[in-house]
Amino acid sequence: MLRYLTAGESHGPGLSAIVEGIPAGLHIQEEVFNEQLARRQTGFGRGGRMKIEQDRIEVHSGVRFGVTLGTPIALWIPNRDYVHWEDRMRPFGQPPEEVQPVTRPRPGHADLAGALKYGHRDLRNVLERASARETAMRVAVGALARALLAAFGIQIAGRVLQIGSVRAPEDELTLEEMQERSEASAVRCTDPDASEAMVEAIRQARLAGDTLGGRFEVVAFGVLPGLGSYAQWDRRLDGRLAQAMMSIQAIKAVEIGAGNAVAQLPGSQVHDPIFWEEGKGYLRPTNRAGGIEGGVSNGEKIVVRAAMKPIPTLNKPLQSVDMATHTPFLAQIERSDACSVPAASVVAEGVVAWELACAMVEKFGGDSIEQMQQSVAAFRREVADR
Ligand SMILES: Cc1cc2nc3c(=O)[nH]c(=O)nc-3n(C[C@H](O)[C@H](O)[C@H](O)COP(=O)(O)O)c2cc1C
């Protein structure tokens, strides 16, 4: 079983994670983590913090000379900004007298709900952990998962489909096309015209003191059939992917395959016919199911999309109420992005990679990559004969 937990506050000393269950013998280099961390930090619409952070991974256990040991992997990403926050964020001692508690909850953030839940009077105790800073660690954990999947020929790519009202064509692309075109775009969109229009839309929103959300897609190429299960509700691969995607801050809807469109289409246009050819085996001319039927991967690409709300910190603030005095105020402005959809798409790639890695380890077990590879090869032979 694979599992991980993250810890860390946005302006605390750093983020940590312990990842357990990664089989022994997986080759991984420091740069693999750092490349993914850098991808999360780019994208038009991101704020000043991205320049301060420049995230770098520290691996404190479980990897020796670039190879996993099969033991817990401890990851650490220092918060470079902590030097400026130490007086307000240190675990012991007292805050400086001039630092007032945060008492003004921002609409759309966890501030109010979190303060009511935990009884905090200083909203910083909520917002520090609820912040999407935590997603940096999810990207690092995702880098491990991607390396595991790559050992079995499974690759993950993502792209932005929509920002605000600007929509890109949802054309089918190869892995290479998706990767090259999304990396070349300031907003991770594979269509150059839509990409330009998205940049302009973000610019306009920023000028108006507003923010924009959008939609993005993550595709897993080379997935084997048989991941997940229909046997129990919590083993369904679509359910697990949806939960994982929804757990990303600001994600409000998830689609698999044709997604929302299935509500309006007749069945003949929703389901994918099955063919069989000598030497090729089973073939599906379409992939409206997004690679999952009955909660089980069917061997096609897995296609997951998600909608992200516009980030809630606005320069054109909404009304809120001070929790100390109950007086109304216009929500305070903190340093913020105007649009984080491109960054969220990178987080989602990592999150999808993690869920698929979990499903691979569950199906093919093994304490080492070599054992898993033997098991995968045997399964591939079995499937080819059916
Ligand atoms: C990658 C990423 C970056 C984000 N950056 C910001 C930001 O700069 N400012 C902000 O107000 N919200 C930002 N958010 C969204 C908030 O974290 C999120 O809306 C908030 O924690 C409340 O959670 P909820 O929207 O899931 O209810 C970001 C989300 C993601 C995924």
In brief:
The protein has one domain (3-384): Chorismate synthase, AroC fold.
Descriptive labels:
four-stranded antiparallel beta sheet, alpha+beta, 11 helices, five-stranded antiparallel beta sheet, 386 residues, binds flavin mononucleotide, Chorismate synthase, AroC fold, 17 strands
Ranges where pLDDT stays below 50 over 5 or more residues in a row are none
CATH topology: Chorismate synthase, AroC fold
Largest sheet: 5 strands, antiparallel
Helix content bin? 25-40%
Q: Report the β-strand fraction as a percent range.
A: 15-25%
SS elements, strand count: 17
Number of domains: 1
Whole-angstrom Rg: 22 Å
N to C succession of SSEs: EEHHEEEEHHHHEEHHEHEEEEEEEEHH
- In CATH, the homologous superfamily goes by the name Chorismate synthase AroC
Reported CATH architecture: 4-Layer Sandwich
Characterize the structure shown.
The protein has 386 residues and is of the alpha+beta class. The protein has a single domain, classed as 4-Layer Sandwich (Chorismate synthase, AroC fold), CATH 3.60.150.10. It contains eleven helices and 17 strands. The chain has a five-stranded antiparallel beta sheet. A hairpin with a 6-residue loop joins β1 and β2. α1 packs antiparallel against α10, α6 crosses α10 and α9 packs antiparallel against α10. The longest helix is centred in the C-terminal third of the chain and has 24 residues. The two termini are 28 Å apart. The model has no long low-confidence stretch (mean pLDDT 95). Bound molecules: flavin mononucleotide. Flavin mononucleotide binds next to α10. The site of flavin mononucleotide (FMN) has 21 residues, from α10.
